[in-house]
Design a protein that fits this description.
α16 links the parallel β13 (about 375-380) and β14. By secondary structure, the chain is an alpha/beta fold. It has an eight-stranded mixed β-sheet with strand order 12-11-10-13-14-15-16-17, sandwiched between helices. The radius of gyration is 28 Å and the shape is globular. α5 (about 145-155) packs parallel to α9 (about 215-225). Bound molecules: 3-hydroxybutanoyl-coenzyme A and 1,4-dihydronicotinamide adenine dinucleotide. The site of 1,4-dihydronicotinamide adenine dinucleotide has 23 residues, from α13, β11 and α16.
Length: about 700
């Protein structure tokens, strides 16, 4: 028996238990252990049936991702699964927690599956740039039919035990995995049920064989948002093999496609992102064992764009919220927006029909800051003005209960200065959510000079609880994300002065894989905000100013850098803008030149990376991978490019530093000079990955 898999016997039932914390990943030792235990249970004449179950918090959650890219260690999973499926004695998978990827593939090779009520079952490989590599694409369509199989394999989201039962993926819902599995095995023996080998059961493939549109429609729906990604298409093809080819041939083709994807740059980047996200939850410089404070009730101040979205995120996770406004009217407007948002989601089938009412019931809308008194965490989301923030935090100091964590959602302002308004700066930090806050996953947790470790841990832990991805950052103008974005914005504007058009710049950025270019983003946010702030500060930006002077404030006025048709958000290039740019440049005595797409890409991306290097030097971010997490989850950086710092390593830091130095000279912009850290890494022949061990895990 191996260390991680043990075999016990309850009279005629052999119970095989995998115990490989934290998630029972299928390491070589687990694969070997299962094979050994199954073989010895088959060989034991006393044993009549076998139950495969797991200790700890979950059933097998998949292959061990850290093994990918390394020389394969025997036995291979397919080999183990063939022995299981061909076992003459029934094998029952008893599932609890999450049965994912290779974990579900193990269960699919068993003859029967039972699961606890809260269990989730899925094939999420596609999210790692992969496809199921141990029969998942061949057995799942045979278990649940190609339509649901496509949804699960190409989309990657798991289904609940109830759904699994409805669709024939499991036989029963049980109370406890080991006990339930054993009881089910006894039933199989008593009823003399024939062994169900999915490989031999083609009954659920018949409909899609007769009418291929069942399959192609499902694929079309699931790949609609897969722009730029390779894995979803390869995964869809593999489900097609199940329909078209005999099992063994399909299995062979699946394996080939899996091996190709494992070696692909996209999957390497996506695996890196998986570990980067988990690494970001580990806070540098906090004493080990620091426990989060208890958070049962949250107060949110301001029911505007952000406050409303943040309140929705908490209610979505079942956490009650006190939502505070300055007056009844503002409150009514804010509550109305939330209700409408949830109702729209329910109408699309995204949440159950009764969810909007249930979630609204968790939000107690009130007027007056004294209402924060019961909250364990207070999040301020009022106007972005230091004076208003200070006023609010001064009041919070008076009303909030001792030990409550006091967070600001400010985009740019100095949290240290805000903390000074209180007598408890140890409880103050930033929780910077991104718009729309109920959708975007990132939460920058801003650690101020005096923030206590347990306050920080509380913010990180509650962010994870509401399904956000936290990244801890330090105090500076714009923190990590917006500070880097500002560099891109500056170059985007300069490119217009040199001859590029908004649509050309945006096209390069979206072709790279970002959801939006800087000018379409400006139109969405509203150009008047920047215009007003420039006026206040006595700063000019001729093209942007000229647009605003012409009443072009962006989407809200139907015109900005682009024009918009009534009711549409699609940006349309506008000849009037080109004319306005030409006129402005003529007035300034400048001539347009042809700007290549290559130059645009370099000037959009490299200055951000340079700023990222400065952010690391100043310890505003602890690890390059934390910066990547910010961009992946806050700005829609394409996951198959890993994040800006990871991508920079792939491009090569020397090339980036050389090009920055070139543009610094060529455009007379000293801010583009390579940062000292970038220069040092180039001189040492290293990449950003060398700065921490974090990225090596996914090698
Ligand atoms: N391999 C190696 N390590 C894994 C792992 C895996 N499959 N899944 C999780 N881990 C590690 C995490 O890195 C983390 O390590 P850390 O504590 O050192 O940071 C630890 O396990 C706990 O993970 P989480 O923090 O994510 O724990 P949660 O409880 O929040 O979530 C989970 C658990 C839902 C299982 C989540 O970890 C997850 O989604 N894991 C990945 C599942 C997956 O993608 N499976 C498919 C793998 S590919 C495959 O199976 C190929 C096959 O077809 C051949
Ligand atoms: P908003 O103008 O939509 O909402 C602010 C709300 O705060 C208003 O409803 C206002 O009535 C209320 N308010 C003002 N003073 C208050 C007080 N003393 N007590 C209670 N309520 C008060 O503003 P928005 O966009 O929601 O921004 C809020 C904060 O979030 C700002 O700090 C902003 O910088 C930040 N932020 C904004 C993002 C965005 O895209 N809009 C993104 C990330 C952060």
């Amino acid at each position: 028996m191996s260390e991680v898999v043990k075999l016990e016997r309850q009279d005629v039932i052999a119970i095989i238990t995998v115990n490989n914390p934290p998630v029972n990943a299928l390491s070589a030792a687990v694969r070997g252990g299962i094979l050994e235990c199954v073989n010895s249970a088959i060989a034991d004449p006393e044993v009549k049936a076998i139950v495969l179950t797991c200790a700890g918090r979950t059933f097998i959650a998949g292959a061990d991702i850290t093994e990918f890219g390394k020389p394969p260690k025997p036995p291979g999973l397919n080999e183990v699964l063939a022995v299981m499926e061909n076992s003459p004695k029934p094998i029952v998978a008893a599932i609890h927690g999450t049965s994912l990827g290779g974990g579900l593939e193990v269960a699919l090779a068993c003859h029967f599956r039972v699961a606890t009520k809260e269990a989730k079952l899925g094939l999420p490989e596609v999210k790692l740039g992969l496809l199921p590599g141990a029969g998942g694409t061949q057995r799942l369509p045979r278990a649940v039919g190609p339509e649901l199989a496509v949804k699960m394999i190409v989309g990657g989201d798991p289904i609940s035990a109830a759904e699994a039962l409805k669709n024939g993926l499991i036989e029963e819902i049980v109370e406890g995995p080991a006990i339930g599995g054993e009881a089910f095995a006894r039933k199989v023996l008593a009823e003399k049920r024939p062994l169900r080998k999915l490989r031999d059961d083609n009954s659920k493939l018949a409909a899609a064989k007769a009418d291929r549109s069942i399959f192609t429609n499902a694929v079309a729906a699931m790949t609609k948002r897969a722009r730029g990604l390779e894995a979803p298409f390869a995964a869809a093809d593999a489900v097609g093999y199940a329909i078209d080819l005999p099992f063994d041939e399909g299995l062979k083709k699946e394996r080939e496609a899996f091996l190709k994807l494992v070696a692909s740059d996209q999957s390497k980047a996506q695996r890196y992102a998986f570990f980067a996200e988990r690494e970001a939850a580990k806070i540098a410089g906090v004493p080990e064992g620091t426990k989060p404070r208890n958070v049962e009730r949250v107060a949110i101040i301001g029911a505007g764009t952000m406050g409303g979205g943040i309140a929705m995120s908490f209610a979505n996770a079942g956490i009650p919220v006190t939502l505070i406004e300055t007056g009844e009217e503002q409150l009514k407007r804010g509550m109305g927006v939330m209700q409408k948002n949830w109702e729209a989601t329910a109408a699309r089938g995204g949440i159950p029909a009764d969810a909007p009412a249930k979630r609204m019931a968790l939000i107690n809308g009130v007027v007056g800051l004294d209402n924060v008194k019961d909250a364990d965490l207070v999040i301020e989301a009022v106007f972005e003005t230091m004076a208003v923030k200070k006023e609010v935090f001064g009041q919070l100091d008076k009303f909030a209960k001792p030990g409550a964590v006091l967070a600001s959602n400010t985009s740019y302002l100095n949290i240290d200065e805000i903390a000074k308004e209180t007598k408890r700066p140890q409880d103050v930090l930033g929780m910077h959510f991104f718009s729309p806050a109920n959708v975007m996953k990132l939460c920058e947790i801003v650690r101020a000079a005096k923030t206590a470790p347990d306050a920080l841990v509380t913010a990180v832990s509650i962010a994870r609880k509401i399904a956000k991805v936290p990244a801890v950052v330090g105090v500076c103008d714009g923190f990590v994300g917006n500070r880097m974005l500002a560099q891109r914005g500056k170059q985007a504007e300069k490119l217009l002065f040199e001859g590029a058009l908004p649509q050309q710049v945006d096209a390069v950025v979206t072709k790279f894989g970002m959801p939006m270019g800087p000018f379409a983003m400006g139109d969405l946010a509203g150009l008047d905000i920047g215009w007003r702030s420039r006026k206040d500060r006595g700063i000019k930006s001729e093209i942007a100013d000229a647009l605003c002077e012409a009443g072009r404030f962006g989407q809200k006025t139907g015109k900005g850098y682009y024009k918009y048709e009534a009711g549409s958000r699609a940006p349309l290039p506008d000849p009037d803008v080109e004319k306005l740019i030409d006129e402005t440049l003529t007035r300034l005595g400048r001539k347009r030149r042809a700007v290549s797409d290559e130059e645009i890409l370099e000037r959009m991306m490299y200055p951000m990376i340079n700023e990222g290097a400065k952010i690391l030097e100043e310890s505003i971010a602890a690890r390059p991978s934390d910066i990547d997490v910010v961009w992946l989850y806050g700005y829609g950086w394409p996951i198959y490019r890993g994040g800006p710092m990871y991508w920079a390593d792939q491009v090569g830091l020397k090339h980036i530093a050389d090009r920055l130095a070139f543009y610094a000279k060529e455009t007379n912009d000293p801010s583009l000079e390579p940062a000292p850290l970038l220069k040092r890494l180039v001189a040492e022949g290293k990449g950003f990955a060398s700065l921490t061990a974090s990225s090596s895990k996914a090698a």
